[in-house]
Structures are given as structure tokens and as C-alpha cells.
Amino acid sequence: MKATDLANVVFEYLNDIDDKGLAPFIEKFPSEPFETRKVKKNELSVLSYLPKLKSGTNSSTSCIFKQFQSVSDYLYWGQTYSAEDFGETFLNKYGWAELIGLRGPIVSEKIACGFLLLGPDVLYPKHSHEAEEVYIPLSSDQDVFWVKGDDAWVSRAVGRPIYHKSGMIHGMKTSLSPLLALYVWYGGDLAQKSKIY
To answer: pLDDT tens digits for 4-48?
Structure first.
């Protein structure tokens, strides 16, 4: 499978989710023929957790989870932060793979779409950014918690969208299991470093 095939699978997956909130994200998806670029995979410590991921029981989520694993070597892997931001321990357990956007193999200036990977026992501190964002957890939702603003930390089901409006403060943390989540950004600076709280 190629990155372009995965982009089509992601598009179909988002379309099949019965949630009107996804409409503005889906509208901005590029269409075929995709404009593509060659990308080089960055070797990040967090990639050691890829084999330890467990997909949820939802069949469509499991499908996209498997498709991602088959092409993860061909995506652009990066980190937005440095050790000065959150420390070396965080960086060893954090990374994202961009599929569509300013850096990924499929070119777009309208959206950034990819996959967040967090190792076990890591706190992604509260932060905010200009872009509208949706996360969809793909790996087992046990021991993964999300927070918005001053709300309580809550677990979210695999396959259920989690929305963050522009400027909304949010964070996530894992416990025993690593997390893989699909993300889509639109609006604002698609390569912006988040404001940390």
C-alpha cells in the first residue's frame, strides 16, 4: 500500500463516521490526482512503540490501524517540540507521522492529516493552537485520557472524534498502553508550534 492509498482509506473512514462535526475537515481533503512529494523517515525513539500498539475492536478502526502500520515507513515523522519544552523523556515517547500537509507525502496547504503516537506513561501537557483539530483514537482506549480546558480528564472510545476549536486548551496522557490517534487540522498555521500551559 502507498501513501496515496492510505489517504483514500482515511477519507472513506472519515466519511463513514456518523458525525456532522467532521464535515469541515472532510471538505478540505485533497482529491485525486494527489500532488505528492518524496519524504524521508526520521528515526525517532517513539517508533519503538509501533509494534506494541493494539487496535480497538471496531472493524473500520482496526482496518485503518492496519493500513497505517503497513505504510508508516513512508510517512514524514516529526516532533514539534524540543527537550527544552517538555524534557527528553517526553520526546522519547512522542512523535507524529504526517500523511497530508506541508511536510507529508501528499501536498496540501488546506489541511494537515496524520497520526499521533504517544508511548506509555506520558503526559502531553495542556496546549493550544490556531488550527481547528479533530483526533480519532485508533488504538485501545484503556489507560488513555483527554482533557479540555479545566474539565476533568476523561477516557474516549476508539473511533469517536474529539474536537478542539481554535485556541482551545487541551492535553492527553497515557498510562500502561501507547496511543495511536488519527488527526486532522485546518485553518491557521498548519506547522505551528503550540502554546504550552
So the answer is: 999 999 999 999 999 999 999 999 999 999 999 999 878 999 999
Q: Measured between alpha carbons, how far is 66 from 55 in angstroms, rounded to an integer?
A: 8
> Which residues, listed in sequence order, are joined to residue 78 by a DSSP beta bridge?
96
Q: Which domains occur in the chain, in start order?
A: 3-189 (2.60.120.10)
What DSSP assignment string belongs to 141-152? -TTEEEEETTSP
pLDDT, tens digit, for every residue of 151-182?
A: 999 999 899 999 999 999 999 999 999 999 99
Instruction: Name 165's Cβ contacts closer than 8 Å, sequence gap at least 6.
Output: 132
10 CB-contact burial (10 Å; exposed 0-12 / middle 13-18 / buried 19+) = buried
**Burial track 17-28 (b if 16+ CB lie within 10 A, e otherwise):** beeeebeebeeb
Residue 129: what pLDDT? 96
Say if residues 97 and 183 touch (Cβ distance below 8 Å).
no
Set of cell numbers at residue 134: 479533530
Residue whose entry in the numeric block shows the C-alpha cell 488519527 = 182
Please tell me whether the overall predicted TM-score, pTM, comes out greater than 0.85 for this model: yes
Quick one: CA torsion of 9, 13, 15, 16, rounded to 10 degrees?
A: 130
